[in-house]
UniProtKB/TrEMBL annotation:
It holds the Pfam family HMG-CoA_red. GO terms for cellular component: endoplasmic reticulum membrane; peroxisomal membrane. Its EC number is 1.1.1.34. Gene3D superfamilies: 3-hydroxy-3-methylglutaryl-coenzyme A Reductase, Chain A, domain 2, Hydroxymethylglutaryl-CoA reductase, class I/II, NAD/NADP-binding domain. It is an enzyme of class 1 (oxidoreductase). This is hydroxymethylglutaryl-CoA reductase (NADPH). GO terms for molecular function: hydroxymethylglutaryl-CoA reductase (NADPH) activity. It is found in: Endoplasmic reticulum membrane. Pathway: Metabolic intermediate biosynthesis; (R)-mevalonate biosynthesis; (R)-mevalonate from acetyl-CoA: step 3/3. GO terms for biological process: coenzyme A metabolic process; isoprenoid biosynthetic process; sterol biosynthetic process. Belongs to the HMG-CoA reductase family. Catalyzes the synthesis of mevalonate. The specific precursor of all isoprenoid compounds present in plants.
């Protein structure tokens, strides 16, 4: 109860949920998890943790605080802890794509997509081990939305962590696609969200600023928008790869001399 009280002292939106402790040698690493309303929460949680540490220091005078943040945090780095414990918002987004859409719009078929996904998943886990998790280009989408909506683009590192899964459903006719993104770090207040263009983009998405009735729901919806956009991008890119159109479409659209 005391840790909760000190965590919330600097902001009524900072609510302590959990503290996870890990020991290594003579050091104790503490990972604080909080809800932070519509803020991404980096400043808010840092302030709260400082207050908690000051309180603990009074109670344990021989405690030596080495740093407020370390690699158990873990900000702007790829780290297993964020995959497993989550950081920011953890989102699963799914869709069923009908057979005729896979054929007409994506110009491929369900079986080719599923086969490609299996091969990519194997390659992904061989290269990146337990941290792997296959995704095609989630970081492109995440970084673009982060810049457009005033997030911290450096946090695309963990926010782009994504497992993309494709399966055949409805007797093998239709495609089920899901993206699992355990650590999307977004806010609709604080940071760069007040800048003119960025706040206009948040407004377009219907998530500008603080949600007064239900604090946190704007930030949660923004995380869902990120995952939905990643799902669409994954579908498009994987389809282009399955259909063999990747280079051809790059030449046509990316190298076009037309504006
Ligand atoms: P961050 O921690 O993401 O860096 P800041 O703490 O700098 O963000 O900014 C959030 C500020 O917005 C805090 O001062 C907080 O009290 C205020 N605020 C107002 N409404 C909300 C809300 N709905 N959710 C979170 N913070 C809010």
């Amino acid at each position: 109860a005391n840790l909760r009280k000190y965590m919330s002292r600097s902001s009524r939106f900072a609510r302590l949920q959990r503290v996870k402790c890990a020991v290594a040698g003579r050091n104790l690493y503490m990972r604080f998890s909080c809800s932070t309303g519509d803020a991404m929460g980096m400043n808010m949680v840092s302030k709260g943790v400082q207050n908690v540490l000051d309180y603990l220091q009074d109670d344990f005078p021989d405690m030596d605080v080495i740093s407020i943040s370390g690699n158990f945090c873990s900000d702007k780095k790829s780290a297993a802890v964020n995959w497993i414990e989550g950081r920011g918002k953890s989102v699963v987004c799914e869709a069923v794509i009908k057979e005729e859409v896979v054929k007409k719009v994506l110009k491929t078929n369900v079986q080719s997509l599923v086969e490609l996904n299996v091969i990519k998943n194997l390659a992904g886990s061989a290269v990146a081990g337990a941290l792997g998790g296959f995704n095609a280009h989630a970081s492109n989408i995440v970084t673009a939305i982060f810049i457009a909506t005033g997030q911290d683009p450096a946090q695309n590192v963990e926010s782009s962590q994504c497992i993309t899964m494709l399966e055949a459903v409805n007797d093998g006719k239709d495609l089920h696609i899901s993206v699992t993104m355990p650590s999307i770090e977004v806010g609709t207040v604080g940071g760069g969200t007040q800048l003119a263009s960025q706040s206009a983009c948040l407004d377009l998405l219907g998530v500008k600023g603080a949600n007064r009735e239900s604090p946190g729901s704007n930030a949660r919806l923004l995380a869902a928008v990120v995952a939905g956009a990643v799902l669409a991008g994954e579908l498009s890119l994987i389809s282009a790869q399955a259909a063999g159109h990747l280079v051809q479409s790059h030449m046509k659209y990316n190298r076009s001399s037309k504006d």
